[in-house]
């Protein structure tokens, strides 16, 4: 899985111009069809039909799925929806309240929160380092009541710093930014390194 820009035409142009490289060996990626289509739930009841592009490495022969930054691997909801759930949970609300607010199943939201809780310290650390690297005069967020809230604050602060440095980043939500920055591994198992 390789997280790419949300602009499909841009990604196709990058493939055609041989600008995308294999994360394993660094060789050029070439088009290799598409994955199975699936439906992704957005906010406000929006639904997206997603059929990610597949590529094959010209060096090692491994195939990779290109996933737009607005989606996260193995999730049926868009990054902004999951991120909104994480932000609500950071306000010390439980999964039932978050699920009711977002109109999602309690089990789905509980899964997001458990997965993020397992990654929260690694995510906080990664985005705190990014904040310090991006900001001229970084203001590290104060300690929050939970590790989950600390991680959410670190993502928001790093996104603000990136937006100040690159104004075009303002069009990208903080959770799309987070997914792109750590290759979609916001909710993956705690054993996966960032």
Description:
It is a single chain. The chain has helices spanning 8-16, 79-90, 95-102, 106-134, 147-165, 174-181; strands at residues 2-4, 29-34, 38-41, 47-50, 53-57, 63-68. With 194 residues, it is α+β, with helices and mostly antiparallel strands. The strands form two sheets. Strands 1-6-5-2 form a four-stranded mixed sheet, with helices on one face. Strands 3-4 form a two-stranded antiparallel sheet. A hairpin with a 5-residue loop joins strand 5 (53-57) and strand 6. Mean pLDDT is 92; it is low at 190-194.
Fold topology:
Elements: E1 2-4, H1 8-16, E2 29-34, E3 38-41, E4 47-50, E5 53-57, E6 63-68, H2 79-90, H3 95-102, H4 106-134, H5 147-165, H6 174-181
Parallel strand pairs: 1-6
Antiparallel strand pairs: 2-5, 3-4, 5-6
Helix pairs in contact: 2-3, 2-4, 2-5, 2-6, 3-4, 4-5, 5-6
Quick overview:
The chain has about 190 residues and is α+β, with helices and mostly antiparallel strands. The protein contains six helices and six strands; from the N terminus they run βαβββββααααα.
Number of helices: 6
How would you sum up the global shape? globular
Q: Determine Rg (CA atoms, Å).
A: 17 Å
Could you give the distance between the termini?
15 Å
What is the chain-wise order of helices and strands? EHEEEEEHHHHH
Q: Report the strand count.
A: 6
Tell me the β content: 5-15%
Strand order of the largest sheet: 1-6-5-2
Q: For the report, how would you describe the main beta sheet? A: 4 strands, mixed
Q: Helix coverage percent of residues?
A: 40-55%
Q: Round the mean pLDDT to the nearest integer and report it.
A: 92
Low-confidence stretches: 190-194
Structural class: alpha+beta
